[in-house]
Design goal:
By secondary structure, the chain is an alpha+beta fold. It has five helices and eleven strands; from the N terminus they run E-E-E-H-E-E-E-H-E-H-E-E-H-E-E-H. It has a five-stranded antiparallel beta sheet with strand order 7-9-8-10-11. It has a four-stranded antiparallel beta sheet with strand order 1-3-2-6, with no helix packed on it.
């Protein structure tokens, strides 16, 4: 099915987002080579030297045809928008991207219109931002999440990160907490939480963002092999590997068993 990059009134919280209620949210991303302008109650983008931010959805052909009507894209020279295809990146290191993602480009004059300088209309309009967060350790346990201030999760999706394993080398209240390391044959079980950016900000304090852990983006798959791009917490610690406490391992297992039938992460199995 086609992918669609939305940057304005089709984004989460805006009036047209309901057209995407049955579409799969792939992740937050950005594309290059455009400038965004404030057109009054909605934005438009035209070719330029900037970056624009938005959300990527997997949509049906039926939904795409419907949105063509909503955006007044009919294949005529005077259409309000034209639909083009772009490459969308999901991280600033440009490791993860999708090609041939549909985008609606404004097809009228932007003379006299104000520029949205940072290319992020949700933040420009003061609206909430939605994202994917991949939890693989104690944050798979919803009780831990609640204790850390996460109050609203829109969707919880069992997901796998392949090519990695869990190690325990990051000092924390339970002794040593989990981290990820590359492992060609490894897999890490966890959950994608579709949530607000403000909820992830609440986790930053518990994770000691920029001190103990940093946010990064990973590519994960659900049980049907659908791809998602999600934020996760990684530690830059290069310490060796240590044995986690039984209490800490139990928190992880309780979290995984809430929705996974039988999935144990590489590196965790030897402590069970």
């Amino acid at each position: 099915m086609p992918y669609l990059f939305v940057y304005g009134s089709l984004r989460f919280g805006f009036e047209l987002n309901h057209f995407l209620r049955n579409s799969r949210f792939v992740g937050l991303g950005f594309t290059e080579g455009f400038r965004m302008y404030d057109l009054g109650n909605y934005p438009g983008v035209v070719k330029g030297d900037g970056i624009i931010h938005g959300e990527v959805y997997e949509v049906s052909e039926e939904t795409l045809r419907l949105l063509d009507q909503v955006e007044d894209f009919n294949g005529r020279p005077d259409d309000l928008y034209v639909r083009e295809k772009v490459r969308v990146y999901f991280d600033y290191k440009r490791r993860y991207s999708l090609n041939d993602v549909n985008i609606y480009v404004y097809n009228q004059t932007i003379e006299g219109r104000d520029t949205v300088e940072d290319g992020d209309y949700s933040k420009y309009a003061g609206m909430p931002v939605i994202l994917n967060y991949f939890a693989y350790a104690e944050n798979t346990n919803e009780e831990i999440l609640k204790q850390r201030g996460v109050t609203r999760i829109f969707k919880k999706i069992p997901a796998l990160l392949t090519g990695s394993r869990i190690v325990f080398n990051t000092p924390c209240r339970w002794g040593y907490c989990a981290n990820l390391r590359s492992d060609e044959g490894g897999k890490v079980c966890g959950y994608i939480y579709v949530m607000l950016e403000s909820e992830l900000n609440a986790l930053d304090k518990a994770e000691k963002h920029l001190i103990r852990y940093i946010r990064d983006v990973v590519k994960v798959e659900d049980e049907n092999k659908n791809v998602y791009f999600a934020y996760t917490y990684l530690s830059p610690s290069e310490e060796g590997e240590f044995e986690p406490s039984k209490e800490y391992v139990n928190y992880i297992l309780q979290g995984l068993r809430s929705s996974w039938k039988n999935c144990i992460s590489s590196g965790l199995e030897k402590f069970i």
